[in-house]
Every structure is written in C-alpha cells, then in structure tokens.
Design a protein that fits this description.
Layout (H helix, E strand, L loop, with lengths): L24 E2 L19 H8 L5 H12 L3 E4 L7 H6 L4 E5 L2 H14 L1 H4 L2 E5 L11 E6 L12 H10 L1 E14 L1 H6 L2 E7 L7 E11 L4 E11 L4 E11 L3 H10 L2 E10 L4 E10 L2
Parallel strand pairs: 1-7, 2-3, 2-5, 3-4, 5-6
Antiparallel strand pairs: 6-12, 7-8, 8-9, 9-10, 11-12
C-alpha cells in the first residue's frame, strides 16, 4: 500500500546489536520466512526477497496442481516479481498479477518478455493495494500465496475477501496460506531468533539471522533480517525490517464464511511445537 496509508504499528522494539552470522536456530528450506509486509518493498530489499522466495518456491507445485483442476484465468494477489505468475503463464494459464510495487511488476514483465511473447501475452499486471482492491475480471482461481494475507490490515481483510469472492466464477477457488501461531507460545516467547545460509553459487558466503518480535495487543509482528555477505575481498552487512499482522484462524474462518466462501481443503505443516503453516482452499458457495 502507499506509504502514506500504511498502518502505524507499535514501535516498542529494541533492535539491540546485530547478531553474529550463524547465530540462532537454523531452519530448513521448507520453513524459511516470507517477506510479506505491511510496508512497500524498496530496491534495497530485492536481493533478500529473491534469496528467500526464489530458491524456495515449492508451494508452486501445490498451486499449479490446483490451477489444473480449476482452469484459468488465475488472479495472483501480491505477485511480487512473478515467482508464481510467470511459471503459471509458462504452463499456459492466463494470469492477472496484482502488486502495490511498480518495480516488482516491472521485473515480472521483464522476466516474462525474456522467456518469449507467448508467456508475456498471458500475463497482465495491475498495480493496486490489496487493502483497497477493486477487480474487473472473472477468475477461476485466486491466490494469496506467500502469506500475503498477513500484509492486509485486519480491518480491511473482510472487504478484500468479499471482493475476491464476487469475482470468482461458479466453482472457482481462493487459495491462501499463512503462519498460525499458538497464543500460549507467543505469550511465553514473544521474541524468537533463527538463522539460515542463503544458497549461492557465486563464491559468496551469505548468512541471514532473523529476529522476530510479536506485539500481542496489536496482533502484529516485526521481523528484522541481519544479513552478512562475505566475498574474497570484502564483507557486506544489510539490515531489513518487515511488519505484518498475526492471523487469528477463527476470525479468518468467519470472514471467509461471511464472504460466501467455504473451506474445502486445509493443509497444515508443523514448523515447531508453537507454529504451523496453514494452506486453505476455499470455494464459492454457489
């Protein structure tokens, strides 16, 4: 969303000192954090978006399988630079990609054009804020992938879900995923830290340490990524912070029902004893 309209989240965060590379708890590739955020991306964060989401887009397999059952066109909400939209087009699906960041959409279009005119011709981009989305077309499948639902303010989420549902063809589906946190776990441990090594093939050793801080009164969270790149001649350090909202599963279920959607399938993946990743497939009631 435009910076002027971004929600003001609590600022009671002590950044502390930068963690050492490799510190914290290592996580596996299937539990890498996403970079969905209530604040727009900037050019300085592009590399980390690519590092986190590019090599670890295993969710595309599930979403492509769903698209084969629904058919197109596909609506990719919060598309970013096209990690899902472009591969979908390569598989022959017409895709409308929606994102608030013009630079990300430009990269998406450039990628599609480099592949060829057939792929580029299947992708249409639209710059919009999900919190104030207005659609014109009809779709067989809508995606809120990469936990994009957590970037939408809770007050605006019901309207977004209603807008999506009203533009799904009969029998169409909305697929979304998010990270579900158990409330007792958040109370017991409001701050968490983990680390991972970014896969690289250019001789640079890169570690990212992520510090996660939860604010329960506002149901928000902040993740600060401390990245260190070490090459033959120099070391570069970068800090990137993202803010997002904590999803209440019961509230989300009620909002989906109110929008005229019913949960047809639910897939859970346990991250640890306090957290799991949830994928929902919702169908229109008609």
């Amino acid at each position: 969303m435009p910076a002027a309209l971004a929600p003001v989240l609590p600022s009671r965060y002590d950044r502390g000192t930068e963690p050492a590379p490799g510190a914290g708890v290592r996580v596996t590739a299937d539990t890498l954090p996403g970079l969905e955020s209530v604040a727009p991306a900037d050019e300085g964060s592009v590399w980390l978006h690519d590092a986190l989401l590019g090599p670890h887009s295993a969710d595309i397999v599930r979403y492509l399988g769903l698209a084969r059952s629904t058919g197109g066109p596909v609506l990719d909400l919060g598309s970013g630079a096209g990690r899902l939209a472009v591969p979908f087009a390569r598989h022959g699906f017409a895709v409308e990609a929606v994102d608030r960041d013009a630079s990300a959409l430009a990269r998406l279009e450039g990628w599609a054009h480099r592949i060829g005119p057939q792929v580029a011709g299947l992708v249409v981009t639209h710059r919009a804020d999900l919190g104030a989305l207005r659609l014109d077309g009809s779709y067989r499948l809508a995606l809120l992938a990469g936990a994009m639902v957590t970037a939408v303010p809770p007050s605006r989420r019901p309207a977004l879900l209603r807008e999506i549902a009203s533009h799904l063809d009969t029998g169409g589906a909305l697929a979304l995923d998010y990270t579900a946190h158990r409330l007792p776990g958040l109370i017991a441990e409001p701050q968490r830290t983990w680390a991972f090594q970014v896969p690289r093939f250019d001789g640079i050793d890169e570690w990212v340490v992520a510090r996660q801080v939860f604010d329960l009164p506002s149901m928000s969270e902040r993740i600060t990524y401390y990245a260190t790149r070490t090459g033959k001649l120099s070391t570069e350090r970068v800090v990137l912070t993202t803010d997002k909202w904590i999803v209440d599963p019961e509230r989300l279920a009620a909002e989906l029902h109110s929008a005229g959607l019913h949960v047809e399938g639910r897939r859970r993946h346990r991250i640890d004893d306090r957290t799991e990743s949830v994928l929902l497939v919702c169908r229109t009631d008609g």
